[in-house]
Design goal:
Number of strands: 3
Largest sheet: 3 strands, antiparallel
Radius of gyration: 24 Å
Order of helices and strands: HHHHHHHEEEHHHHHHH
Helix content: 55-70%
Shape: globular
Distance between the termini: 74 Å
Oligomer: single chain
Structural class: mainly alpha
Length: 313
């Protein structure tokens, strides 16, 4: 722990050392993705600003200090998921300090997470997805690319970050698989549907006509400038197709991933298989991520439970 008789420059040097070690901890020990590391460090920055304003040393902050910080944040941030993420970010920092023996007791362990809204993301029906696909102008240069994008988001359940970072060298077309790098740089093999393969091969021909920058040569999906697509561009493509199809639901690329999981579950796929396809570390995440209509559950009991079957004979 930093000594109270350090000079200001020594304190700054000490603090910078701690924060650099925390960054390394997130990247190496926790194996988090760049996006997750950035989110945690943004939350830490909010805490540092609060501590500086109130003359508090973040390393020696008390539970009461952290409570006050959380209370102050929640005045401006009303979204429950955002509130929960901030507390998770604070807890992560103090778990690191405890792990690295900078502190002897974790002051964040008693912070209460807000109760998360249990509402699930929107799900598209097969008909709505077909309607979106029908809006793709196949006469345009990006037609087969956009069709392949929809097929991989819905047909393989990819995250948008996994899609934009997909490499040609990790696509095994003959075998019908692609190697995807998910959260925490964890890799998994994901099947490709026959239609995704067909559309991607068409796109690959169109892709060969682009002026591709050397640093983007291995990226599967590119824009017309020969550079890799961004997450925001994928969002724009999906939202535009949904609008053209007359879909009024809140739509994002994640909606297609959620629809993929939901449709598999509704058609009898095992939850463990869905977990592997989605790249979820915990089965609990998959259970939250997917849903079955309560009517379907009731119908399943009436149809398959022995007591109900015998009663209808």
């Amino acid at each position: 722990m930093a000594s109270s008789n350090m000079s200001d420059s020594q304190k700054r040097e000490y603090s910078n050392k701690v924060y650099k070690e925390y960054h390394t901890y997130l990247r190496l020990e926790k194996s988090l993705s760049n996006n997750s590391v950035e989110a945690y460090e943004q939350d830490l920055q909010k805490l540092l600003v609060f501590c500086k304003r109130h003359g508090i040393n973040p390393v020696s902050a008390s539970f009461e200090d952290l409570q006050e910080f959380v209370f102050e944040q929640f005045k401006e941030i009303t979204n429950v998921r955002s509130q929960s993420r901030i507390i998770s970010g604070v807890r992560s920092f103090y778990k690191f300090l405890l792990y690295s023996r900078y502190i002897e007791q974790d002051p964040s362990e008693l912070l209460q997470l807000p109760k998360l809204d249990s509402r699930l993301p929107n799900v598209l029906s097969v008909e709505e997805i077909d309607a979106m696909v029908a809006q793709i102008d196949m006469s345009k240069n990006e037609g087969h690319r956009n069709r392949a994008i929809v097929e991989m988001l819905y047909g393989s359940g990819l995250r948008v970050s996994e899609l934009v970072n997909l490499k040609l060298s990790n696509m095994y077309i003959a075998e019908g698989y692609m190697l995807v790098e998910g959260k925490g740089s964890k890799q998994r093999l994901v099947p490709l549907s026959p239609e995704a393969i067909r559309q991607f091969l068409y796109w690959k021909e169109d892709r060969s006509n682009l002026d591709i920058k050397p640093e983007y040569a291995d990226y599967a999906f590119l824009n017309h400038y020969g550079r890799c697509l961004t997450r925001s561009m994928i969002f724009h493509i999906i939202k535009e197709l949904a609008a053209q199809a007359g879909i009024t639901k809140q739509i994002s690329p994640h909606t297609l991933r959620h629809s993929f999981a939901t449709h598999l579950l509704q058609n009898g796929a095992d939850l463990r298989i869905i977990q592997q396809l989605l790249g979820h570390e915990s089965i609990t995440t998959t259970e939250i991520y997917t849903h079955i209509d309560i009517h379907d559950l009731r119908e399943a009991i009436l149809k398959y439970h022995p007591a109900n079957r015998s009663a209808t004979l």
